[in-house]
Prior knowledge:
The longest helix has 24 residues, at 142-165. The protein starts with a helix and ends with a helix. The chain folds into three domains: 2-165, 2-Layer Sandwich (Beta-Lactamase); 183-350, Alpha-Beta Plaits, CATH 3.30.70; 356-501, Beta-Lactamase. 43% of the residues lie in helices and 22% in strands. The chain contains 16 helices and 19 strands. It is of the alpha+beta class and 502 residues long. The protein has helices at residues 2-13, 19-33, 78-84, 100-108, 142-165, 183-200, 214-221, 223-241, 266-281, 307-323, 344-350, 353-374, 380-395, 434-442, 456-460, 488-501, and strands at residues 38-45, 50-58, 72-73, 89-93, 96-97, 113-121, 124-133, 204-211, 248-251, 256-262, 289-295, 330-331, 399-406, 411-419, 422-423, 430-431, 445-448, 464-469, 473-479.
Amino acid sequence: xxxxSVARLARILAEPQELVDLLETxxxxxxxxxxxxxxxxGYLERERGTxxxxxxxxxxxxxxEPRPIDQGFQDxxxxxxxxxxxxxxxxxxxxxxxxxxxxxxxxxxNKGSALVAPVLLEGRVWGELYAxxxxxxxPFNEQDGExxxxxxxxxxxxIAQAERFSQVEHLVYxxxxxxxxxRRAVDLALERALVEYQVSGDPxxxxxxxxxxxxxxxxxxxxxxxxxxxxxxxxxxxxxTGNVARALAGRIGGDEFAIVLPNVALDTAEKVANSILNxxxxxxxxxxxxxxxxxxxxxxxxxxxxxxxxxxxxxxxxYAAKREGSSRVLLxxxxxxxxxxxxxxxxxxxxxxxxxxxxxxxxxxxxxxxxMVMSQGLSALDRLVxxxxxxxxxxxxxxWVVSTISSDTTQAVAVSANRDGLDVSSGHDVTTDRSWxxxxxxxxxxxxxxxxxxxxxxxxxCATVAAAATDVWLVELLADSDELLVGVPAILRALLGSALSx
Length: 502
């Protein structure tokens, strides 16, 4: 379960987001996986000799704010300890563990024990993850410290990426036709909301909508008419969700929309969905959408609520509305069963590869993280090789390459490689342009043999390459199938950053 939590955090942090949002997501996940009462994340102000808190989540004292504007402490006990020995440590009141300053700060927060894990970025302390437990709870132990160290390493990778995302111009997280979010942004928002749900129990709801009559409009009036229909539906969705706090609406396919509603129960989500249909009734496209709703508040006894299950339930509900030609909102758990979902989009368009690709990516991530924990203390190169080799095997890739990048020529020179189980020489080196490297350093890239942006797949003599980079390193997973590596570049980028930061 703890490894699953680390894998989920790595997936979330692999996506572009503002730094403060990233830290809040990480704090919620750490709070849940460590069994903590609260978690704070702060960055090290070297010039002032303090750790300045950025995010607080969980059971907070009266003076603590979730996103403090100015909450720094000159005598924060972890500051000198982090610089002297950047490794996790525990502070406890009963039994007493820690120096007087550390115990005084723990008492100030009305807690019984604390676990402090440094966040290391490029070999230096960036800040800390500070987890607490209440008096009467078991103090943190060595296993908790090992988990916190892995969480901090994954967090460091996300922080490094967050600093680069604004510089990678072609990474688009909105749909150009409607102005709504796209599938990637919707998936990320839902993952964040479910992390909070697991910690706080606050409900999460999803609205799924499918356009009615799009094929008829395209076939009989042309694609411009179809685009007008899609935009009208998007406008109705935008009107309905604009006043709902933290709601995110997105177009996730050609004729499909999804709305993520954090901290919104089923009855409120149903009202949002009905307001969409009402807005369409007043437009030129009445009955333009089939709509279904699902919520965690209806999921008691249905097992773990994952993003796939929640969206699948809502998808089945709206598909039932489409089948019956209904102009009413159908609710999962009331109008349709909460059975294990089989996604309609997968049945219609892409066969079983969607789930298979997601499973492969998750397997690669978990395998890489597992090896990363066992390879602490190795050199950066040895750790990278161990992680990439493990991820390659888990995903079924035909090979992998680890290279160094020359900043002067943007040439990647292989220092370790493996193909079909045999060690191979570096062969031809890879040359890349700076925009391609920016993408590889951001969230990773998927390169096919016919791509003009990079010669990496042609040089490696394979169909597809998933690549990720830092300023110094380039890692590649090689495949002879276009489908095998879908969704893997972001996972590879998270593994790369975590391996180097650990």
